[in-house]
């Protein structure tokens, strides 16, 4: 009898320990999951240029009147957006370290020539930090562009609500309205379609 | 016989106790292991959350022989879909990846050797045969070998990895990843 009682007691203790372990385990898992969820960051597509707080698909300037600015180009000359009033304008934000930027810049140069009769203006707005003007000018020359290259200004990047990536391009029609805003390098055909949009939109 | 039976009960009791302990240990130990795997996957697994920095340090602790120059391997990982320039990019306009470490607590950094990059050709979809320059980049995991001498005991190497990340059609501004490695000299 005593033997059976002892076995029963040991069995009860064993089951109790297993139940305790189960509860302990459940609590630990819940705590770990909660901790993991707290440190979780929103997942983004790996092939998209996505930084926290910036949606590359967003076009915050679309349909708005392009903010005015006056900047200095690499030759030291002041350049204002207002001096191109009545022209379709391409504002291409780039940097010397940006390979995709340098890939599409020669296409802008070619398209500026192609649509010269329509008054197309292309402006390159450099976004390098701490780079000498001479180096920026040399880089633009190496890339093969001769349109105005304007030196960086945080206020302009801020007023056009740029993201944390380059290139970014703003297309403005003859009335000064933003008709497209793109992120990343695009094919020459896509650039031309956007340019035609800028030319056509303000034609009426 | 009784003595034998008595001994048998004690043995049976001990056996049951052992089984119970084993079951408890298995339940607790097994679940703890599962948690570690799950958390590990969430933090560092492939396809995990891209970091705002796009690069992470995988080696945060090393053990080396004290007193004489040793080489330690620091492993970094670039987020999937991103690349950074190697230490020797092919174009002078591209910013190289550079690791700068400071010795601390008697540790002396003697130099760094970088892994070779892989070729990467820029290409914009829909642009036909038009291709950009051929670059030399790090994708996925890459290593920097650091030659150093350390004293006995624990010390810390700190510094930063300077790099500039891109995806195929866009680039991010140059960034700096703080690097801190616990070193134990034995």
Which strand order does the major sheet of chain B show?
Answer: 1-3-9-6
Low-pLDDT stretches of chain B? 1-49
Count of beta strands of chain B:
12
Mean pLDDT of chain B: 75
Helix/strand structural class of chain A: alpha/beta
CATH classification, class level of the largest domain in chain B: Mainly Beta
Any idea of the CATH topology of the largest domain in chain A?
A: Glutaredoxin
Corresponding CATH superfamily of the largest domain in chain A: Glutaredoxin
Poorly predicted segments of chain A:
35-53
Beta-strand segment tally of chain A? 7
DSSP strand (E) fraction of chain B?
Answer: 35-45%
What does this structure look like?
The complex is a heterodimer of chains A (204) and B (186). By secondary structure, chain A is α/β, with parallel strands linked by helices. Chain A has 2 domains: 44 residues; 132 residues, Glutaredoxin. In chain A, 41% of the residues lie in helices and 15% in strands. In chain A, strand 4, helix 3 and strand 5 form a beta-alpha-beta unit. About 9% of the residues of chain A have low confidence. Chain B is an alpha+beta fold and 186 residues long. Chain B is 23% helix and 42% strand. Chain B has 1 helix and 12 strands. A 4-stranded antiparallel β-sheet of chain B has the order 1-3-9-6, with no helix packed on it. A 4-stranded mixed β-sheet of chain B has the order 2-12-10-5, with no helix packed on it. The termini of chain B are far apart.
Question: Would you kindly provide a brief summary of this structure?
Answer:
The complex is a heterodimer of chains A (204) and B (186). Chain A has 204 residues and is of the alpha/beta class. Chain A has 5 helices and 7 strands.
């Amino acid at each position: 009898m005593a033997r059976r009682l002892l076995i029963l007691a040991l069995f009860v203790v064993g089951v109790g320990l297993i139940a305790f372990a189960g509860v302990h385990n459940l609590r630990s898992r819940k705590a770990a999951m909660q901790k993991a969820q707290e440190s979780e960051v929103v997942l983004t597509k790996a092939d998209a240029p996505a930084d926290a707080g910036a949606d590359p698909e967003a076009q915050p300037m679309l349909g708005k009147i392009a903010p005015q600015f006056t900047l200095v180009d690499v030759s030291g000359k002041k350049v204002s957006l207002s001096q191109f009033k009545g022209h379709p304008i391409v504002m291409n934000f780039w940097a010397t370290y940006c390979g995709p930027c340098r890939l599409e810049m020669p296409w802008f140069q070619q398209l500026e020539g192609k649509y010269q009769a329509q008054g197309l203006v292309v402006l390159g707005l450099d976004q390098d930090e701490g780079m000498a003007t001479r180096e920026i000018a040399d880089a633009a020359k190496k890339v093969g562009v001769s349109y105005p290259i304007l030196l960086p200004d945080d206020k302009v990047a801020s007023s056009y609500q740029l993201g944390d990536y380059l290139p970014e391009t703003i297309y403005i029609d003859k009335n000064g309205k933003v008709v497209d805003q793109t992120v990343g390098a695009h094919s020459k055909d896509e650039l031309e379609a956007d340019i035609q949009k800028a030319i056509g939109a303000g034609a009426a | 016989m009784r003595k034998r039976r008595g001994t048998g009960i004690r043995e049976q009791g001990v056996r049951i106790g052992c089984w119970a302990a084993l079951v408890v240990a298995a339940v607790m130990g097994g679940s703890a292991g599962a948690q570690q795997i799950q958390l590990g996957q969430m933090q560092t697994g492939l396809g995990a959350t891209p970091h705002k920095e796009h690069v992470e340090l995988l080696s945060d602790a090393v053990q080396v022989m004290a007193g004489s120059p040793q080489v330690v391997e620091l492993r970094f990982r670039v987020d999937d879909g991103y690349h950074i320039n190697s230490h020797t990019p092919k174009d002078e306009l591209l910013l190289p990846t550079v690791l700068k470490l400071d010795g601390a607590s008697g540790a002396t950094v003697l130099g760094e050797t970088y892994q070779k990059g892989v070729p990467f050709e820029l290409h914009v979809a829909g642009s036909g045969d038009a291709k950009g320059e051929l670059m030399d980049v790090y994708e996925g995991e890459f290593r920097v070998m650091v030659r150093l001498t350390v004293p006995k005991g624990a010390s810390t190497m700190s510094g930063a990895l300077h790099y500039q990340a891109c995806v195929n059609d866009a680039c991010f501004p140059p960034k700096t990843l703080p690097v801190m490695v616990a070193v134990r000299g034995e």
